[in-house]
Write a structure and sequence with these properties.
With 647 residues, the chain is mostly beta strands. The protein has 4 domains: 3-324, monomeric porin ompg (Porin, Beta Barrel), CATH 2.40.160; 350-428, Immunoglobulin-like; 437-511, Immunoglobulins (Immunoglobulin-like, Sandwich), CATH 2.60.40; 521-645, OmpA-like domain (60s Ribosomal Protein L30, Chain: A, 2-Layer Sandwich). It is 14% helix and 43% strand. It contains 7 helices and 31 strands. The protein has helices at 3-30, 54-58, 214-223, 545-560, 579-599, 627-631, 635-638, and strands at 68-80, 88-103, 106-120, 131-149, 152-163, 171-186, 192-202, 230-238, 248-260, 276-287, 292-303, 316-324, 350-358, 369-372, 375-381, 387-393, 396-403, 410-416, 421-428, 437-444, 453-459, 463-467, 472-477, 480-488, 494-500, 505-511, 521-523, 527-530, 567-572, 607-613, 641-645. A hairpin with a 4-residue loop joins strand 10 and strand 11 (292-303). Helix 4 (545-560) packs across helix 5. The longest helix has 28 residues, at 3-30. It starts with a helix and ends with a strand.
């Protein structure tokens, strides 16, 4: 092993050690002892991607915390004359990948890879076999992610590929290492842009014996994936779609390229000096279920390198991956009571015995604790038949205390005899319980990333609970109707209605939108000043996407100011419609705005919808117009929605 290889291994080893140490330190600092693991979160189709897939390699995404991901993936390429004129080449590569994220910011992965290449040739005298198989390569790597600011994240990837060649024994001298950063910028659910680069130290040529014949040498290099030291780079654009029905999916486009920095193979150096190759990947990842995902991609060659600098790119390669992420088992807290009978020698005294039964069923109650008030050591537990025995008690009046889990505590007066045994029958009543319902879920942003926030439940009971860094929360509530106000730093608050049923578990997802850097809605003296127009889809009451974003800010402001008890929603239109038609249209538009705000958590009793038609359309000399109306006159002003405070 060379000095450079040893140094690279030390760098990779230190990188893995630092990532694991940071994970351990963070876990120790942030996770209290006895923490109960939350229920598995719904999988983000991007974060559920498996390592070595195009989408995973292009972005800063890491897996969901404490979720294992198992993936079977492969690619297939077919070309004529790719290596030698007249030859026909088919290549199939496959990999089994396992990945685990011990923390929200760290991914650890391992993979076993293999390939099969069939080269049908037309020229005689070739020494390379027609069918070439390579199996047993092993990849071990880590990916650390840091959320730098709103929408911006940085990741660092380090990996080592151990070559197995034609056997299952690793050749450590033929390893391939790569190390590099990735940057992703998320435009708040619209598009994500990613760019990355790494440097590859590649000694794969040592894993296979290459013949002196140039054509056979080139074919074997291609079949075994022989490469040389190189710089890789790429950029990608993707977007996460989550329709109301059907699976979530992520379409993406990725450009990738590489530049070989090593010297050319001396046998093939005369074939050309092109050190670069590049391609364009078009892909789609779909989260079919919460545990199963499918990724498809096609790689189109844009340019390929000369034979002396490594294996060429086929004109088109098809990629397929199936990823399975089994749900984590939810931990349970079990309450138990252990009673230990301690015998302490005392002076001879009286004896009290008895039997404890359940009042409603008259069945014996085992495990109930019986003690004598004022006597610390006089404490026993009932046997399987509900009986108990207290010995060596001071004679005279005494009071027995009975306790049992799920039963009302009970005090029973008795008399301890000087001789013999006093038998005391005791009937104990079960403690009345309220059949509560369980509520658990996650607080997510508009692209389904977890949000740390607070949820205030009001209704049959008033309870406040916090969602951690993974967005998870869980609590018990009495049955009834609740309103859950959800807040998160840097996000718009909202109120969500919720019904809790007795002895049932309710799972909810509370979605928050990111608060814009510059507010579009501010509180004014007589109403809300809305800086962005609330637009409709033409002359209809259908709200546009931009309108819903603005109305989310309106809802956030009204929820934060309950003292504004009455708000009138006035929808206006210009004179392009007849008065009756404009009046009917604006009434429907005002009601559409009101319905959206009620759905976002604003109390409907505070909102009054009014269609104004063309009554206040801007025009020359219109009486009662304010200076603001004059400045904003025209159709853009006429087609508007106003929010007016009603005294």
């Amino acid at each position: 092993m060379t000095l450079v290889d040893a140094r690279v291994r030390r760098v990779l080893g230190c990188t893995f050690a630092v990532l694991l140490a940071l994970h351990g330190a963070r876990a120790a600092a942030t996770e209290p002892a006895g923490e109960v693991e939350p229920a598995p979160s719904p999988l983000d189709p991007a974060r559920a991607a498996a390592p070595l897939s195009p989408l995973y390699d292009a972005t800063t995404d890491v897996g969901h915390r404490r979720r294992l991901r198992l993936s079977f993936q492969g690619d297939y390429a077919k070309a004529s004359g790719l290596l030698v004129p007249g030859d026909s080449d088919k290549r199939l590569r496959a990999a089994v990948v396992a990945a685990y994220a011990p923390a929200d910011w760290l991914d650890l992965f391992a993979s076993v890879l293999g390939s099969s290449n069939r080269n049908v040739r037309t020229q005689p005298g070739r020494t390379d076999p027609e069918l070439i198989r390579a199996q047993g390569d092993f990849v071990l790597g880590a990916k650390g992610r840091w959320a730098a600011s709103n929408g911006l994240s940085l990741a660092f990837v380090a990996a080592d590929r151990l070559r197995g060649g034609h056997s299952l024994l690793f050749d450590f001298d033929a390893s391939t290492y790569w190390l590099g950063p990735i940057v992703t910028y998320d435009l708040q659910g619209l598009l994500r842009f990613s760019a990355g680069a790494d440097y590859v130290i590649d000694h794969s040529a040592k894993a296979v014996t290459l013949p002196a014949d140039p054509q056979s040498r080139y074919v074997l290099s291609y079949a075994n994936g022989v490469g040389y030291d190189r710089f890789r780079y790429g950029a990608a654009v993707d977007r996460v779609f989550r329709p109301a029905r059907g699976p979530a999916f992520v379409p993406y486009v990725r450009f990738h390229g590489e530049h070989v920095t090593a010297s050319a193979d001396p046998v093939l150096a005369s074939t050309g000096k092109q050190r670069n190759q590049s391609g364009l990947q078009l892909g789609l990842r779909s989260q079919l279920t919460n545990e199963l995902a499918l990724e498809l991609a096609g790689d189109i060659r844009l340019g390929t390198m000369s034979p002396g600098y490594g294996a060429p790119s086929p004109p088109f390669t098809t990629f397929l991956a199936f990823t399975y992420s089994p749900g984590a088992t939810q931990a349970q807290v079990v309450e138990s009571t252990r009673v230990v009978r301690v015998e302490i020698p005392t002076s001879p005294g009286g004896t009290v015995s008895g039997r404890i039964e359940v009042l409603s069923t008259h069945l014996p109650l085992p495990g109930a604790v019986v003690s004598v008030v004022g006597k610390a050591h006089a404490r026993v537990a009932t046997d399987a038949d509900g009986t108990f025995l207290l010995r060596d008690l001071p004679t005279g009046p005494a009071e027995l205390a009975v306790e049992a889990l799920g039963f009302e505590p009970l005090h029973v007066p008795t008399e301890v005899p000087a001789t013999g045994d006093r038998f005391v029958p005791i009937a104990i009543a079960a403690r009345p319980t309220t059949s509560s319902g369980q509520v658990r879920g996650h607080v997510l942003d508009d692209v389904r990333r977890p949000v740390a926030g607070a949820i205030a439940f009001s209704g049959a009971n008033e309870v406040n609970v916090r969602a951690g860094a993974d967005g998870a929360f869980a609590l018990s509530l009495p049955p009834g109707h609740y309103s859950a106000r959800v807040t998160g730093e840097g996000h718009l608050s909202r109120i969500v209605p919720l019904d809790v049923s007795a002895n049932e578990s309710t799972i909810v997802e509370l979605a928050l939108r990111r608060r814009p850097a510059v507010p579009n809605v501010v509180l004014a003296a007589h109403g809300l000043d809305v800086k962005s127009a609330i637009a409709f889809d033409g002359a209809t009451p259908e709200l546009t996407m931009s309108a819903t974003l603005t109305l989310d800010e309106v809802a956030d402001l009204l929820i934060a100011h309950p003292e504004k008890r009455r708000i009138k929603i006035e929808a206006h239109w210009d004179t392009s419609l007849a008065k009756d038609a404009a009046l009917s249209l604006t009434a429907a538009q005002a009601n559409a705005v009101r319905d959206y705000l009620v759905g976002a958590g604003v109390d409907g009793g505070r909102l009054e919808a009014a269609g104004m038609g063309t009554a206040k359309a801007a025009g020359g000399g219109a009486p009662g117009r304010s200076m603001m109306q004059i400045l904003r006159s025209g159709r853009a002003f006429n087609k508007r929605v106003d929010f007016v405070f009603v005294e």
